[in-house]
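Onboarding guide, step 5: your first structure request.
Type a short instruction followed by the sequence, for example:

Predict the 3D structure of this protein.
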Amino acid sequence: MNYGEELAFWYLRLNGFFPISNFVIHKSSEVEYSSDCDLLAIRPPYVYEEIGGKQDDWDTFLNERFDLNLTIGLICEVKTGGYKLKEIFRESNLIYSIRRLGFVPPRKIMSVAKELDSHAVLRISETYQIGKLLIANHFIDNKNSERLLFYSLDKVIEFIKNRIAKYQYEKYRDRIFFNSTLVQYFMDDIFKKKDAE
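The system replies with structure tokens like these:
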């Protein structure tokens, strides 16, 4: 993962998702050429952790856009430089990702993908919803704001740092168990700054 994908991974992880990074989309009968989805993630409705996983720990950005009482499937792309919006969330990649999430019976995948193509979040049953999230330094086309969710990389970093600061003692104590040196650094840096005050 590059640093943007790593930050996005931890943003989702700290919001109760179970993310897969660099999900490979193979060339197949429905996919013209191989690519990947930066993050594919699932969030069950009753997620809870005593340290950093309570209801008031979730980011309001996600809370306002999803029904957290449903299982969420999230298709996430991360861009740290320039990008072309038309190349993000191609229909063939949506079909492949929706199939992998496993929320939709095979006979309905095509119709769900077509509908999701024009929506940022789609409720597909009484149990499941699927969303598309772009995390980047900037959003290049506000005309497509209904087609996908956008969250800035700066906001992702702010959320991660605030979550660490909220549980700074526990996070600092357990920092080595986090497999991200970037997140370990944030934990160390925040603890040192608070300790110096």
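Each response can be followed by summary notes, for example: The chain has a mean pLDDT of 91.
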